[in-house]
Amino acid sequence: MNTRFLDACRGLPVDRTPVWLMRQAGRYLPEYRRIRSACSFLELCKSPELAAEVTIQPVDILGVDAAILFSDILTPIEPMGLELDFVPGPVFENPVRTLADVEALRMPVMEQDVPYVLETIRILRCELAGRVPLIGFGGAPFTLACYMVEGKGSKDFATIKKMIYCAPEIYRALMETVAEMLVAYLGAQVEAGAQAIQIFDTWGGILSPSDYERYVRPYTARVISGLAGCGVPIIHFVKGAGTMLETVREAGGDVVGLDWHISLGKARETLGPGVPVQGNLDPTVLFGPKSLIEAEVQRILRENDGRPGHIFNLGHGILPETPPENAKFMVECVHRLSAKG
Q: Please, are residues 329 and 289 in contact by the beta-carbon 8 Å criterion?
């Protein structure tokens, strides 16, 4: 099997820099759109054979060094008692606003409540055997809480911030519940066969560094420590965390994910030579000409300066309008420009 990705997660030397893309299975691929045209997003997530097929598509098409499970970070929230829909973004019709709402949440039994996720992983381990590793994933407690409290995406996240500052007992109870659920959910993914886990904290960067340290880090740390014995690398990605990488690092994990708002070289200096990193090309670069894509890949590789423990990725998810041929060219550039010898 191509182990570059797993080796880089552990800070080991590799023959060339491994690369995969956040949201690499998705709307930018015509092959994905053909499957998606026959079912809703949630139906696709809950259909193991189809979810496995779209997970494998970018491995075949792009030549990436890892597959990431096709699912959604909100998948385990629905069986907790919140009604989830996508219109097209995620919407909860009954958001969590009171202590009674938190107490009404049920703890999912993973094999019973999200069997489709675990079955997809099992299928993928068979289909990917001898090829590339499989990454499982989940949302960080704070990002999940943002959706659960706001009821949908938000420009200012005022509702959850108000809860943090004005009703800390509700916020604390919610975060403890979500963290407990995530340890079980991500642990079940590993038991089913996931060979690495990425924790996505998409909204962690909306708080000040001091608020992140006080209100977010303890709960993410609880999830990561709860997975300590699982034996697979943990990637911790916080979007917008360039000003608080040390604090993010203290939450734990084997690899720190980076968005494009910080130089990869500076990030490595801040984190120290023993901390593997993942990132961090601006996704919109893939709209540019191939000369620009190659130059930006070269720049990031140069910033890494040959240090082990670098996984090339975008600084956030690939955008739906991205030309697939540009994504494929980027992968080829990473492999060609980083090849040893």
A: no
CATH topology of domain 4-338: TIM Barrel (3.20.20)
Torsion of CA 136, 141, 146, 148, to 10 degrees: 80
For the chain, what are the domain ranges? Answer: 4-338
Contact 245, 256 (CB under 8 A): yes
- Please enumerate in sequence order all residues whose Cβ is within 8 A of that of 173, keeping only pairs 6 or more positions apart, or say none: 99, 102, 103
pLDDT digits (tens, 9 = 90+) for 320-338: 999 999 999 999 999 999 9
Quick check: helix, strand or coil at residue 134? strand
CA distance 293 to 291: 6
Averaged pLDDT, 214-237:
97
| pLDDT for the residue numbered 328 | 98
pLDDT, residue 116, reads 98
State the catalytic residues.
Answer: 23, 27, 36, 72, 147
Whether the Cβ atoms of residue 258 and residue 277 lie closer than 8 Å to each other: yes
